[in-house]
Amino acid sequence: MDAVTIKDIARALNLSTSTVSRALRGSYEISAETKRLVMDYAERINYQPNPIALSLKENRSRVLGVIVPQIANNFFSQAINGIEAIAYNRGYHVIIMQSHESLEREVLTVQQAMARRVDGLLISISSQTNNLAHLHAIQQRNVPIVMFDRVSAELDAPKIVADNFGGAFAATEHLIQTGRRRIAFVAIPPYMAITQDRLAGYKAALTQYGLPYDDDLVRFVGFQEHEFDPVIDDLLRLSTPPDAFFMAFDRLALWCMTALRKRNIAIPEQVSLIGFTNISVAELLDPPMSTVVQPAQEIGQTAAERLIELIELKEKAPATSTVKIPNTLIVRESTKRKTE
Amino acid sequence: MDAVTIKDIARALNLSTSTVSRALRGSYEISAETKRLVMDYAERINYQPNPIALSLKENRSRVLGVIVPQIANNFFSQAINGIEAIAYNRGYHVIIMQSHESLEREVLTVQQAMARRVDGLLISISSQTNNLAHLHAIQQRNVPIVMFDRVSAELDAPKIVADNFGGAFAATEHLIQTGRRRIAFVAIPPYMAITQDRLAGYKAALTQYGLPYDDDLVRFVGFQEHEFDPVIDDLLRLSTPPDAFFMAFDRLALWCMTALRKRNIAIPEQVSLIGFTNISVAELLDPPMSTVVQPAQEIGQTAAERLIELIELKEKAPATSTVKIPNTLIVRESTKRKTE
DNA sequence: TTGTAAGCGTTATCAA
DNA sequence: TTGATAACGCTTACAA
């Protein structure tokens, strides 16, 4: 049983396809009676317009391309959740693609999305992406882009991010207020904007509370777990070791918890632990770790809303604007007690 | 700058569109010289065939619909990962939709997918889905379906699942071999096939090792965390309480860990804990819990492969086949020591 | 108020 | 070896 077309309706009702088309969209130039006739029949045989034909005609696909480093990642799967919610409400579908943290694959993926004629692109760039030529190229084709989470100053596009500065400030402030003085800050490579912002928040809190900034306490690691343990050991061997660990990245916080457990360092009796992370892990396992929870879903929603606006209004260059969605600080035992 | 079409090439080269079309697909009836000419020019101006026009012509979209209860769930995001990997290799795109564990939304979602003219459907049904009329309907429209993970015997379609029986058997066997005798089994509502299979594996292992089956040790809970704690308390109050907990569902395992910690019940000194779960949580947090790891990604891959086969071969009714992908048992401290 | 015809980008059929 | 034309499903001038 093949799908019903306007032609089928026209034939059955002895009308022309254009009359049927107009009747279905409620055009004023069609008599009420014909309209009813067509509508009823269409309903009865379960007519559904073919979106592919429409896309061809209207030269748009009603599809949003979403490019993320990884789908199987709490943050991104929640963000996608938010994107989908908005997209479906507005009549768009979403095609999700992964760059696998590789610039090369990201470029390919962007090309694929263009080949698929997406109406707009939501992208969170890979950690390797230091060149945005592929994105500039599609902007020249007049396909709107919205960046989220992993954004870059080098592209003139709306950006939706968590308030990384504010979140890091709040986390650091909280540690200070609960009596910690030597706060280690560990993040992923420093060329990413999110890292920069979090580091700035950390520094600002130290300054505001009159604590010195110590380069020895600030470390950057890669994406491999084996790079992590030496960093912790190094920190612990300092002449004045840290009394708190602030892990400015999702996975780092979990690795740190494991590393401290292995070394029998008690949280929070000996050190405090706080991390940027996602609600699911944070809530399910009730870990000994306070958390700056990232508003992943809201970021996705906001980004999708912004993109659809751009697509539908087609205003030229609504200028680069960066929206910061606030984080939520969840305090647990790990950082509650004062130690001094 | 709009996308380049075959017409543009034809005009520029003073050829007809049909010649260009044939040249681009390397048809034998076009002279080598013309071919080169066309190919070179197409390359130079970066021609990309419009997939929408193709879809209309060929009456297929090269899109797979994927319906899952939730995207923001480790198992499903990994499964989607596997699906995407296969799909992109075979030239398909993937549209992901969520049923949010609701039959009503699942029905809507299936209709949407059909309206979008997907070439095939991959579905993991919601926990509320007790009626498969919506799926039968699309089978009648000759759109192939493959079910994965959450499957139902009531639909005649290929099914890809984890080896739930085998995994539960292995977990139970492991607990028995490490000296446990009173093994609690907790799962989600019993009408789901996965629950049935896991329960059967549990029973089979008891039988094989000559242990009695005790109804008191087997419990079913809903999806809400507050339903969970009373069940644990109930089990602990038994005249002979369990010496091991087997949580036959992802979230339950995590809840159980938290519940036991709250009650100061030591793992594995007092009880063993083992659960069905996902690799990411299991690995990252190094929890005191052995795990039957579900091959989420492989399930996704296999399901996608099967679906694409069905789409492309268009064999009629390749019959219902159920593929079981083995689980992996990861043993940790939580179940290692013998207690008796 | 309704119908005819052209067009969106591509391929297939038939002619030249 | 190449070109003209029709067709996929739909919308929209333009005509009736």
TrEMBL record, chains A, B:
Keyword Cell membrane in annotation: no
Keyword Transcription appears in the UniProt entry: yes
Domain HTH lacI-type: 4-58
Record keywords: DNA-binding, Transcription, Transcription regulation
Source superkingdom: Bacteria
PROSITE patterns: HTH_LACI_2
GO molecular function: DNA-binding transcription factor activity; transcription cis-regulatory region binding
Protein name as it appears in the record: LacI family DNA-binding transcriptional regulator
Organism: Fibrella aquatilis
